[in-house]
Amino acid sequence: MTQRKFQKTPVKMVPAPSYGILPERDVGERPVLETRNLGIDFGGLRAVEDFNLVIGKTEIAGLIGPNGAGKTTVFNLLTKVYQPTMGTVLINGRDTAGMNTVQANKLGIARTFQNIRLFGNMSVEDNVRIGLHNQIGYSTVSGILRLPSFWKGERAQHERALDLLSIFDMQDLAGHQAGSLPYGAQRRLEIVRALATNPSLLLLDEPAAGMNPHETEELMENIAKIRDKFKIAILLIEHDMNLVMGICEGICVLNYGRIIAKGTAEEIQNNPVVIEAYLGKQKEG
Amino acid sequence: MIQFLSYLLNGISLGSVYAIIALGYSMVYGIAKMLNFAHGDVIMIGAYMSFCAIQYWSLPPIAAIVLAIVVCTALGILIERMAYKPLRTATSLSVLITAIGVSWLLQNIALLIWGANPKSYQSLVNFGSLTLFDGQLHITSETFITIAANIIIMIALTLFTGKTKMGKAMRAVSEDKGAAELMGINVNATISMTFAIGSGLAAIAGVLLCSSYPVLMPTTGSMPGIKAFTAAVFGGIGSIPGALIGGILLGLIEILGKAYVSTELGDALVFAVLIIVLLVKPTGLLGKKVHEKV
Hints:
Chain A is 35% helix and 24% strand. By secondary structure, chain A is an alpha/beta fold. Chain B has one domain: Orthogonal Bundle (ABC transporter involved in vitamin B12 uptake, BtuC), CATH 1.10.3470. Chain B has eleven helices and four strands. In chain B, helix 2 crosses helix 9 (222-235) and helix 5 (141-163) crosses helix 6 (165-175). The longest helix of chain B is centred in the first third of the chain and has 31 residues, at 2-32.
C-alpha cells in the first residue's frame, strides 16, 4: 500500500471510551473535519442548522437520529453536493466555501451511498479504478499514443485496485460485473471505491443497511481495520445501534436538523433527550 | 445478382456514414442524457470547411480533413459550453428545444456565409474505382474508404471507452453523474470531451458523405442527421455496437428500398422500420432497459 503523506504531529492518546475492539484513539491537533454553524435552507424549510462537529484525525464517529432528521443532508453538505446556506466546513483545516464536489473530494473527503450507487455495468476493478482516477494518472495524450507512461500508469492502477480490493478479500471478484455482485459485496465495493480516492475522511451512509448480524459483525471489524490501515477518520450514519455503540468513539445525535446530543456511546445511551427523540416523551405521573 | 451486390455495398457504405453520425448522437445521449439535434448541422459545417480548404485555399485532402475535424471539434465544445451547459439542470424539454435552435442557427450561419446555392463537392477520397465481373460491378474508392473508416472508428472508440482512463470516466458519468463526481471525476470536462469526440466524428462523416453524394448546401446535414438519429434509436441509443448495427441496417434498408420498392418511398421506408422496431422493442435492438432511480 502507498504511504499517506501525513506530517508527524504530536498526538495525544486517550483510552477508547467504549467497547474493546479499539485500543486507543488519537486526538490530533488539527482535526480532519470541522464544521461551524453549518446549515441549509430548502426554500423555506431549514433542513439543518447550527451543525457543529469536530472529527479528529483517526476518529470513528457516528451520526444518528430518527428518520428525516437530516443525516444524509449533512453528508451532502460535507461533500458539497449541496452548498450550505450558512456556516463553514473545514476539511484538513481548509475552508471549502465555494468548492464543488470534485474539489472537496481532492481535499480528502469520500463517501458511500445509502442506496448503492456503483457503476453497475462496469467491472469491479473498473469501479475501483474510477476512484483512482485522480490518484494514479497519465495524460490523455499518452493514453492515445500508448506511451510507456500509459502502460506504467495502467499497471500501477491495476495493482493498486487489487491491493484495495484485498481489504475485503475481493481481489478474485475483480473481473466480475459490479451490478451482479451480492448485496453485501456491493456495499463493500462502494467502500473500496471511496477508499481509492485516497480520503482522509470517509463518510459511510448506512453501511450495514440490509446486512445480517454476522455480516454487520464483520463490517465492524473491517471499519476498524480500515481506520488502522489507512489512518483515516470515519463518519458513519447508521441505524444499527450495535454497530454505532460498538465502534464509534464519538456519537452525534441529530433531530429535526439540530444536534441534540454529543458524546460517547455510554453518554448517549443514558441521555434523556436522546431517549425522548427516539421513543417519545414519557408521560408524567 | 451483381446488381444486388452493388446495392449491398452502397447500402453498407451509406450505412457506415449513418453509423459514424449515430455514434455522436449516441455518445452524447449516453453521457449528457440529451438529444443533440444540432449534430447533423455540425456535419454540414465539417463538409463546408473541407470544401473551402480544397476549393479556396487549395490545401491537400488530408489537411482539409484535419481542418474539418479541428473546426468541428472546437465547434462541438463551443456549442456545449454556450448552449447546453447553462441548462445542465433544466428539464430535458428545454434542452431539446435549445438543440433545435442551435441547429437552425448553424444552418442560417451557413446560409449567410456560403449562400443557398448548392455547391458541387469534389471528392476528397477519390482514388479511382475497382471494376469486377467484366466491368459489371464498379466499386468506388469512396465506398471502400467509408466502410474502412467506419470499422476503424468503431474499434478505436470501443478500445477508448473500454480501456482508457478517460473512457472509463465517460462510462462512469453515463451511469451515475453524481457518484462519479463524488469519486473526483470532473463531469463537465467529461461532457466536453464527449461533445468533442462526437463533433470530430461528425466532421469525418461530413467529408465521407459529401464525397459519395457531392451536393453541398446548408441543409445537407439535417436529413442524414435525422436518419442517423433514427439509426441510433434503432440500434439502442447509448450503445456503440448499437449505433453500428442500426446505421448499417438503415443504410441497407434505404438503398435496397429505393432500388426494389420505390425511389420516392425509400426514406418513408426507413422511418416505417423505426416505428415498427420501437413498437416491438422500445429500447432498440441492443438497448438495455434503464431502471429509473426513485
